[in-house]
Specification:
The protein has 347 residues and is of the alpha/beta class. It is 31% helix and 21% strand. It has helices spanning 12-24, 43-53, 113-119, 123-133, 147-154, 163-173, 187-193, 216-219, 222-240, 255-266, 330-335; strands at residues 4-9, 30-35, 65-71, 79-87, 90-93, 136-139, 180-182, 196-202, 208-215, 243-247, 276-280, 298-302, 308-312. The strands form five sheets. The protein has a three-stranded antiparallel β-sheet with strand order 3-4-5, with no helix packed on it. A three-stranded parallel β-sheet has the order 6-10-11, covered by helices on one side. Strand 4 and strand 5 (90-93) form a beta hairpin. The chain is globular, with a radius of gyration of 25 Å. The N and C termini lie far apart (61 Å).
Length: 347
C-alpha cells in the first residue's frame, strides 16, 4: 500500500487532511506531520517515529498523490485505493483505474487530471468532483438569495429536523432585538419580506402590553438580515460537519457577532462533527490568540506583478529566530506593517 505523509509548518497539514476526510472519508494510509506547533517540538524525533511505524515494504519515497477513493467490493470490507500519482515527470495510473488510462496526454499542464477524466464521463472522477462541488462558497455581501434556503429549512416537515427552533435559538443568541420570527404562509409574501419579526409592545411606563410584528427585510438592520439569510446554512454545515467558505464574513456585522459565529465552529460542543469555516475578513479585531492559533491566520498580499501571495502568521519569526510569541498583539503588529498585507496609501 502506498503511504502518503502530509507535512507542514504549523497545523496546515492536519487541516488539509481534515478537508480530505470530509470528502473521501477516513484514509488510513495518510499520516500528518505538523511541525513546530508546540514549543518543545522535536522534528527529528517525530520523523523517525513515523518511519519506524512503517513496514519495510512501505519505506519508499512518496510523491504527490492526488487521487484517493474508497474501493467497495461486494462482501468485502472497504479499502482505500490509490488511483493515480502525479509528479513533475508525469502521471502514473493504477492498473485497475481504467477510466483514467489514455487521458494522460489530454490534461493541460495547469489543469486537473480529475477534471479531465470527469469531462470524459469517468464515473469515479465524477463522484469525487461532485463531493468537491458540495463545498459551499458564498459571499458575505451578496447573501440575500440564501434567505430562501432558510425559509425552506424552517418549513421542513421532517419531525427529526428542528431547523426552525435551531434558527430561532441561533438568532436569539445574537441578541438581535426581537423575540422570535414567524414565516408568512404565503410563499410569494415570504420571498418579499423574508419573515415577520415579533417585538414587544410597551406602554408609557415601559411595561410590556403585547406584541407587534415588522417586516424582516424592510424594518430590520442589514446585519440582522444577513444573520437570518445565512442562519440555515451555518447550522446545516455544523450539523453535517461540512466545509463553509465565506468571503467578507464580517461585512454588516458587529465584531462580537462575527466572533460568535467563529466560536460556534471552534467549540467542540457546538461543532461535534468538525465542520470547518474558511473566511476572508478585514476585521483586525479577530487577530488575537484567543480566537485563532497562529497557523489559522493567513494573509494575502499583492506582489509587484499584481499576483496574490498567500502566507501564514506561523511562517514569521522573531529577530532571534523564534516563532511569534503568543503574548504579542497580532492586531497591533499587523496595523504597523509587521506582517505585510496592508494597503500603502500614497500622499
Amino acid at each position: 500500500m502506498i503511504k502518503l505523509l502530509l507535512a507542514s509548518h504549523g497545523d496546515l497539514a492536519y487541516g488539509v487532511y481534515s478537508s480530505l476526510k470530509i470528502i473521501m472519508g477516513e484514509q488510513k494510509n495518510i499520516s500528518t506531520l505538523c511541525a513546530y506547533n508546540k514549543e518543545d517540538f522535536d522534528l527529528k524525533k517525530e520523523v523517525w517515529k513515523i518511519i519506524n511505524d512503517l513496514k519495510d515494504d512501505d519505506k519508499n519515497p512518496i510523491n504527490q498523490v492526488l487521487g484517493y477513493v474508497k474501493n467497495i467490493k461486494e462482501g468485502k470490507a472497504k479499502k482505500e485505493k490509490c488511483l493515480f500519482v502525479r509528479t513533475e515527470e508525469g502521471i502514473g495510473i493504477a492498473d485497475e483505474y481504467n477510466e483514467g488510462k489514455g487521458l494522460e496526454e489530454k490534461v493541460r499542464d495547469n489543469g486537473l487530471f480529475l477534471s479531465t477524466i470527469d469531462s470524459f464521463n469517468g464515473e469515479i472522477a465524477k463522484k469525487i468532483i461532485h463531493k468537491i462541488d458540495c463545498i459551499w462558497v458564498i459571499s458575505g455581501i451578496d447573501h440575500e438569495s440564501w434567505s430562501v434556503f432558510t425559509n425552506d429549512m424552517c418549513n421542513n416537515k421532517n419531525p427529526e429536523l428542528s431547523f426552525q427552533q435551531e434558527i430561532q435559538d441561533f438568532l436569539k443568541s445574537m441578541n438581535v432585538g426581537f423575540n422570535r420570527f414567524e414565516l408568512p404562509e404565503d410563499e410569494k409574501l415570504a420571498k418579499e419580506i423574508k419573515a415577520y419579526t415579533i417585538h414587544n409592545l410597551y406602554n408609557e411606563q415601559e411595561e410590556v402590553i403585547g406584541e407587534t410584528r415588522f417586516s424582516m427585510k424592510e424594518h430590520e438592520s442589514s446585519g440582522t438580515n444577513k444573520l437570518f439569510d445565512l442562519a440555515a446554512l451555518v447550522i446545516s454545515q455544523l450539523m453535517l460537519g461540512d466545509l463553509l467558505v465565506v468571503d467578507e464574513l464580517d461585512s454588516k456585522l458587529h465584531p462580537l457577532l462575527t466572533q460568535h459565529i467563529i466560536k460556534l465552529f471552534n467549540n467542540p460542543k457546538t461543532n461535534p462533527k468538525g465542520a470547518q469555516l474558511i473566511f476572508a475578513t478585514h476585521d483586525t479585531n479577530l487577530l488575537n490568540v484567543k480566537t485563532f492559533r497562529r497557523d489559522q491566520i493567513w494573509f494575502t498580499e499583492k506582489d509587484h506583478s499584481e499576483a496574490t501571495d498567500l502566507y501564514s502568521l506561523a511562517e514569521f519569526r522573531e529577530p532571534e529566530g523564534n516563532k511569534i510569541r503568543k503574548d504579542r498583539s497580532f492586531e497591533k503588529d499587523y496595523i504597523n506593517g509587521r506582517y505585510g498585507a496592508i494597503p500603502y496609501i500614497k500622499d
